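Lab meeting, item 3. Inverse folding demo.
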């Protein structure tokens, strides 16, 4: 049995801010939780969350090799290892100084032989987590249901061709929403890992999309029934494991939500690596969601553009973290959302201490990005560039277009009398050089 109050990271003390001159790898160089940036503390601006699945259940195995992760809790099995992971996780949250965590239901508790047994296992671990949450300062950013690992989901969950699977998935999400209410989860996420198709040759596309819409409406209705008030989020991803997933990117997901009259109930949980797989930049996805009022939360990681799969690396690219924080600040923050480190240490980084090194690197990268983005906004750097570039729409024929007074007749008349068109340079290289200055100087 698991021994309560066991130290799982006994060689690590609480991680503190020591400044950019520090040589201590177990210290923050840029993330100072109490520093005021943009009218709030860094801790308030950067609502960091730990992904339970990557930090505590990942074993380092891949299609070409066996497990490599060396974890003190690996000596346990079954429900004992599930309990040990809970203990280890809260020790980790405290020592790293984060306020949130996130999990899939099957991350925290193993499946049993029946759904009833599985739910019993889940209840036991949820009770343990709830007790730990009461004695600490950590909240659940979001939880979700794993509707992709078990072979029953081989054809999908809400979009499965098998109605029995649809029913099972509904029962699993029902339980997940009950857990969300019990643990006062800030959000509930839907990630359609297998909600897509591999080939259209055997796919009733209309039925699958309709069923997905029906499923999500059922979830909304049940949340209202039990009084769960957390934010519903959908996480876009274009492919892998399926050839095409229905929530391909921010635009496709918003179109789906609008079409099925779900847009008032959902926002988006956007992941950097998923943007890469969709052929977009992370800031593109964030801005698309922001300008439509649909930006809810973020999975903070990065992908490798040279690889065609989800590598889930820790975010260390300052260019990306700066532009991401720019969009988040322009959004007025993330509300009930946060920056969840959906990132995993590399297979060769197998020591327990590597969990701290990796998260410190990500937290410092976003802290640096926050300060640069805030300064860019204070100085109106991009706003000045954009306002100047679109100045023609603030007067004359451009203003007529924007305010709806123009039509094809008036535009033709204008064009016939204005044959000389002069464009202005986009100054892309100059703008990027300015951006580099802000990243390097804050």
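The presenter then showed the designed sequence:
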């Amino acid at each position: 049995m698991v021994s309560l109050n066991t130290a799982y990271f006994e060689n690590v003390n609480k991680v503190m801010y020591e400044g950019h001159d520090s040589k201590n790898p177990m210290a923050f160089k840029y993330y100072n939780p109490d520093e005021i940036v943009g009218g709030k503390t860094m801790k308030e601006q950067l609502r960091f969350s730990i992904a339970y699945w990557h930090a505590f259940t990942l074993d380092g195995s891949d299609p070409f090799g066996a497990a490599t992760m060396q974890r003190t809790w690996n000596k346990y099995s079954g429900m004992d290892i599930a309990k040990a992971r809970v203990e280890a996780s809260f020790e980790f949250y405290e020592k790293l100084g984060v306020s949130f965590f996130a999990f899939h239901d099957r991350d925290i508790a193993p499946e049993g032989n029946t759904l009833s047994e599985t739910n019993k296992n889940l209840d036991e671990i949820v009770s343990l987590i709830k007790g730990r949450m009461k004695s600490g300062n950590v909240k659940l950013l979001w939880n979700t249901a794993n509707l992709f690992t078990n072979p029953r989901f081989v054809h999908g969950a809400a979009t499965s061709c098998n109605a029995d699977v649809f029913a099972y998935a509904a029962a699993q999400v029902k339980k997940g929403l009950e857990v969300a209410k019990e643990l006062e989860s800030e959000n509930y996420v839907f990630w359609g890992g297998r909600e897509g198709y591999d080939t259209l040759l055997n796919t009733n596309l209309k039925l699958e999309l309709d069923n997905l819409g029906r499923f999500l409406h059922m979830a909304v209705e049940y949340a209202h029934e039990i009084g769960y008030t957390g934010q519903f989020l959908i996480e876009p991803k274009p492919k892998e494991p399926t050839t095409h997933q229905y929530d391909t990117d921010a635009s496709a997901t918003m179109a789906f939500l609008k079409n099925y009259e779900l847009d008032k109930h959902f926002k988006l949980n956007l992941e950097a690596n998923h943007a890469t797989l969709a052929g977009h930049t992370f800031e593109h996805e964030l801005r698309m969601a922001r300008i439509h009022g649909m930006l809810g939360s973020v999975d903070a990681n990065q992908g490798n553009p040279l690889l065609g799969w989800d590598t889930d690396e820790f975010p260390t690219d300052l260019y990306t973290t700066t532009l991401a924080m720019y969009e988040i600040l322009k959004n007025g923050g993330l509300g009930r959302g946060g920056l969840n480190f959906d990132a995993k240490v590399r297979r060769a980084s197998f020591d327990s201490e590597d969990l701290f090194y990796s998260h410190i690197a990500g937290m410092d990268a976003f802290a640096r990005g926050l300060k640069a983005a805030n300064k860019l906004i204070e100085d109106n750097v991009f706003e000045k560039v954009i306002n100047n570039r679109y100045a023609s729409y603030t007067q004359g024929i451009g203003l007529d277009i924007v305010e709806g007074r123009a039509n094809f007749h008036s535009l033709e008349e204008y064009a016939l009398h204005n044959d000389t068109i002069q464009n202005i340079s986009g100054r892309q290289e100059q703008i990027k050089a300015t951006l580099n200055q802000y990243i390097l100087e804050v």
